[in-house]
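Issue 218. Parser rejects a valid record. Input:
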Amino acid sequence: MSLTKIAATLGDSEALAARVEQELRNHKGKFIVQGMVFILAGALAAGLPGATALNTELVIGVILLLTGAFQMILTLRSKLHWWSLLSAGLSIAIGIVILWKPLPVLLTIVTVLAIFMTLEGLLELMLAFEFRGARNWRWMLFSGIISLVLAAVLWIGFPGFDLFYLGWVIAVNLICYGVSLLLLVWKIAA
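Output the parser choked on:
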């Protein structure tokens, strides 16, 4: 790479850093509120890990049941898109199974959450590198790494603790992300 290209790249990264800093400065209050909400939600989830895991699952079951029923009613009334009856029926069936047998389904949800946290961790890493021009961007990087570690722990699993474990993983993830948002805007000039 020539010296001119290196200088141009450095200039572009400095311009990007300035734009990122300005964006963070312009929306500092929003980042602080969002960080605090994530931390409070994480503290609540940590205090009630079993309830967090079970209620997360039950909310998903109710949502699937209600949206499936709504979709089925609209499909039957419209007399169009009969293929959507299959989708509605699937939502209703899965919703009923979740509500009828919550504990076996919870083990499945651990796997789904492991997939989600793996993807979320990777996306947080990408976001961290996008914020790389900001002073405290490494906290977002740290949050992404923590998400990946938590995902790995879910992949390994501890069958006897799945209910509490899932709640704690959700709590740690929420708190780490909230803290990373707060630290990202820390000492950004008003």
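Fixed in the parser; the record now loads. The chain has a mean pLDDT of 80.
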